[in-house]
Automatic annotation (TrEMBL):
Descriptive protein name: UDP-glucose 6-dehydrogenase
Domain UDP-glucose/GDP-mannose dehydrogenase C-terminal: 320-422
Keyword Cell division: no
PANTHER family, per the entry: UDP-GLUCOSE 6-DEHYDROGENASE TUAD
The organism of origin for this protein: Chitinimonas lacunae
Single GO term (MF): oxidoreductase activity
Keywords: NAD, Oxidoreductase
Length: 438
């Protein structure tokens, strides 16, 4: 199939590469010329395990190409995926300017049937707006061309995006026409050879499904964070509680880890956008309001613990921070809790040296010279009063504790990801503060 992917970020690039991998003829469009230049030279602008090889392989086979030409992109694909950003607007709603601009471009240049597939996370009713924008452009050109509109929200997780796309647990398709449904079924057949994973529904329900999924996951995180904070007050251990409830199949073990709050490019903006959508319809989503409040407090949790230990004035104190990315296996720094932790420490007069295996170049764009950066985890510890952990990278799971103790001014760790066993840490001579652990 001839496919165009509009927007070559995390979602667009993964979508384009995976669709090319199974034999499609894919053209990825982005308006950012630097991104396209990097991609054309065989590099990739983001860190995502396995993606660079896949992009290179399919580019070499001429199944995956990149362009900044809107005209060429619209002309190429019978299927036009929209995978542009939907960042939060000032009022918390999803900013649809990029989606609408992409739609207008399609209407401006199409000269035959197109199946327009929205993969961006967009509020209910956006498909109607996209349809109207394309129709308006066609009318302005004096043309009457047929096109279909599909909502196909993306559920991939950064850090495991290739695996998620190649072996999805479900593919949600919101479509009103039989032709569109059939084309989507055909397109996704190679990704579901084992059993059917397509869940077909109406467009508005598909749009809402994406927000419902992210809101549910964010709720689980805030629930566990609040419970962890209570466990500390009650002298109980959240890790034991987690296992005790996770064993119930109605609850399950996934997404029950307390920590330093959720971040990333999706949960914060999607929870906020869903609340906003509800408000526009005269409804207050009280549960999600609480989820956001708990999360905002949790992002301060580690700094509060530091403050309890050292006092409110941290002038002259220096801290090592392991982990900058909002989660492991990505360089994405959007809404990363590490940023709140760094802000909190700096505001109290402390200095920080941070280490992250892949996110330092992204962090530098946001933090510049406000902190120092280390080339490896151990180098970050030099002269630090304590180690703080903000991201659960694998390489932090079993470090050389003797070496850590030797480098820190005092054997003190504030672990925002519960990586270690408190009893074992005590035996090693550490003062160890985790989240909700005894
Ligand atoms: N990142 C994730 O893990 C994830 C997962 C599921 C869904 N989503 C959703 O997918 C969408 C894209 O997210 P992302 O993280 O890939 O964003 P991103 O910011 O990484 O990429 C978006 C890209 O679109 C480009 N762009 C903007 N307007 C354009 C236009 N008119 N024509 C061509 N290109 C244009 C930008 O230059 C940018 O490169 C969002 O709605 C997001 O909520 C993201």
């Amino acid at each position: 199939m001839k496919i165009t992917v509009v927007g070559s970020g995390y979602v667009g690039l993964v979508t384009g590469a995976c669709l090319a991998e199974v034999g499609n003829d894919v053209l990825c469009l982005d308006l950012d010329p630097r991104k396209i230049a990097t991609l054309r030279e065989g590099g990739i602008p983001i860190y995502e395990p396995g993606l660079e090889d896949m992009v290179r392989r399919n580019a070499a086979a001429a199944r995956l190409r990149f362009t900044t030409s809107v005209e060429e992109a619209v002309e190429h694909g019978t299927i036009q995926f929209i995978a542009v950003g939907t960042p939060p607007g000032e009022d918390g709603s999803a900013d649809l300017q990029y989606v609408v601009a992409a739609a207008r471009n399609i209407g401006r240049y199409m000269d035959g049937y197109k199946l327009v597939v929205d993969k961006s996370t967009v509020p209910v009713g956006t498909a109607d707006r996209v349809r109207a924008a394309i129709a308006e452009e066609l009318t302005a050109r004096g043309l009457k061309l047929h096109f279909d509109m599909v909502s196909n929200p993306e559920f991939l997780k950064e850090g495991a995006a290739i695996e998620d796309f190649m072996r999805p647990d479900r593919i949600v398709i919101g479509a009103d026409s039989e032709q569109a449904r059939d084309t989507m079924r055909q397109l996704y057949r190679p990704f579901q050879r084992n059993h059917e994973r397509l869940i077909v529904m109406d467009v508005r329900s598909a749009e809402l499904t994406k927000y419902a999924a992210n809101a549910m996951l964010a709720t689980r995180i805030s629930f566990m964070n609040e419970l962890a904070n209570l466990a500390e007050l009650l002298d109980a251990d959240i890790e034991q509680v987690r296992q005790g409830i996770g064993a119930d199949p109605r609850i399950g073990y996934h997404f029950l880890y307390p920590g330093v709050g959720y971040g990333g490019s999706c949960f914060p903006k999607d929870v906020s956008a869903l609340r906003r959508t509800a408000a526009e319809h005269g409804m207050e989503m009280q549960l999600l309001g609480a989820v956001e409040q708990v999360n905002a407090l949790q992002k301060q949790r580690l700094v509060n613990k530091v403050e309890r230990h050292f006092g409110a004035d941290l002038c002259g104190r220096h801290f090592a921070l392991w982990g900058l990315a909002f989660k492991p296996n990505t360089d994405d720094m959007r809404e990363a809790p590490s940023l709140d932790i760094i802000d909190g420490l700096l505001a109290r007069g402390a200095t920080v040296t941070a280490y992250d295996p892949v996110a330092i170049h992204e962090a530098k764009k946001l933090l510049g010279e406000r902190i120092r950066y280390a080339a490896n985890p151990m180098a970050a510890l030099d002269g630090a009063d304590a180690l703080l952990i903000a991201t659960e990278w694998k390489e932090f799971r079993s470090p050389d504790f003797e070496a850590i103790r030797a480098k820190l001014r005092q054997p003190l760790i504030f672990d925002g990801r519960n990586l270690y066993e408190p009893a074992a840490m005590r035996e090693l001579g550490f003062d160890y503060e985790a989240i909700g652990r005894r």
